[in-house]
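Good morning N.,

You mentioned wanting to compare the apo and holo forms, so I went ahead and generated the holo version with zinc ion. This is what I fed in:
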Amino acid sequence: MRTQSDCIFCKIVADEIGSIPVFEDDHTLAFMDINPVARGHTLIVPKQHWQNLYEMPDEHLGYVSASAKRIAVAVKFALNPDGVSLIQANGQGASQSVLHFHMHIVPRTMGDELKINWQLRPGDLDEIREVAAQLAAAVEPVL
Ligand code: 5GP
Ligand code: ZN
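and this is what came out, ligand included:
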């Protein structure tokens, strides 16, 4: 199991620090972004530590992609947004701020004019928990 002791997402995976989870399977965890750029903004991470796409084995990219699809479908079903964006940053120039591979699932609204380098602003935890419960209820179970 690859892990890095000073990595915030490794700590979330290990339950050493709290998160608001939506879904997990053997290889991935989906949890709410604490600075949501939209209602329902979710992150998918591999449970093991890889910094970025360049380092990730294809197999684990596959696991993350499958979970990302699962969450995107749950977002569509539960929140019915105008669209859903999957965003994944690699390196400083791409504004990657947490150096553990992650995929953003961002519900979109017509005309939101979302900039790819958005400002991080803490969300209301009660609201985030509420939407997390909606998403968790809409996630297709793993068969
Ligand atoms: P990046 O900028 O690297 O693509 O995205 C990192 C994301 O992680 C940001 O959207 C940020 O809000 C989120 N984030 C950073 N620290 C934490 C944390 O401790 N918990 C959660 N749930 N999200 C975090
Ligand atoms: Zn990590």
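The CA atoms of residues 20 and 31 lie 5 Å apart.

Happy to go through it together on a call whenever suits you.

Best,
F.
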